[in-house]
Specification:
Shape: globular
Number of domains: 2
Oligomer: single chain
Number of helices: 13
Structural class: mainly alpha
Distance between the termini: 44 Å
Radius of gyration: 18 Å
Order of helices and strands: HHHHHHHHHHHHH
């Protein structure tokens, strides 16, 4: 996984091809690529001022950010690999590895210097242990666009062994109501699928990333939501 985060696109593709040639389980290779894409979400320093635009403020990591785009693309390549013949499945995984490294290229040096979420100072500040209390803190952080706190609280929630379903339910509420620039619901589904296919030791990284993205996008309602609620009387 670390090599994929550091490599050039060509080298990442070569690394995946070499792993396949060595007989490593394609599912494990796909998991490693997915975790590499997840690192891009966890490490992202946020959208720089020069890339900001209406609905995409400086510091945001939602929408078509490097990590979210890479995660969604890798999820698609992995799903295709699962149903393709062996030759095409190998091609899908090679392209997935290439995708992660390519998406990182625009800010390559920065990603290697940034630390992944949750950051220690925020994790240490989370004292609550009850699941309901932690979810309430997470939602408060999400509504306030506090990416670091939301990430730390969900990390704590997972580390304590609480059930993931309530955390996913919290995130879903915002995935369908906020403007994720075509990636809100898509990234939510990516995380759900990758969480299920990732081994327990690493799967909560996916939900931590989702908490961060959810906090980033909150406060900018998706177009059509108000009208849909009015029509549905919801």
């Amino acid at each position: 996984m670390s090599e994929l985060v550091k490599s050039s696109p060509a080298s990442a593709a070569d690394a995946v091809a070499a792993a396949l040639a060595e007989g490593i389980d394609p599912a494990e290779i796909g998991e490693a690529i997915s975790l590499a894409a997840n690192q891009l979400v966890l490490r992202d320093g946020g959208r720089p001022e020069r890339w900001a635009s209406p609905g995409k403020p400086p510091g945001s990591v939602d929408g078509d950010s490097v990590g979210v785009h890479a995660s969604d693309a890798v999820n698609a390549w992995r799903n295709m690999a699962r149903v393709a013949n062996p030759r095409n499945a190998a091609a899908c995984l090679i392209l997935a590895g290439y995708e992660v490294a390519r998406d990182r290229q625009a800010r390559a040096a920065e990603f290697l210097s940034w630390s992944p979420r949750p950051l220690d100072e925020f994790t240490e500040a989370v004292k609550t242990t009850a699941p309901d209390g932690l979810l309430a803190e997470a939602e408060s952080a999400i509504r306030a666009n506090q990416q670091e706190i939301a990430s730390a609280v969900i990390h704590r929630y997972g580390a304590l062994g609480h059930e993931p379903a309530p955390a996913f339910a919290l995130m879903l509420k915002y995935a369908v109501s906020e403007d994720g620039a075509l990636h809100g619901e898509k990234y939510y589904n990516t995380v759900r699928e990758e969480f299920e296919s990732t081994r327990p030791a690493f799967r909560w990284r996916q939900l931590v990333a989702l908490a961060r993205v959810t906090a980033s996008e909150c406060g900018r309602p998706a177009p059509g939501v108000a009208q849909a609620r009015e029509l549905l009387k919801a």
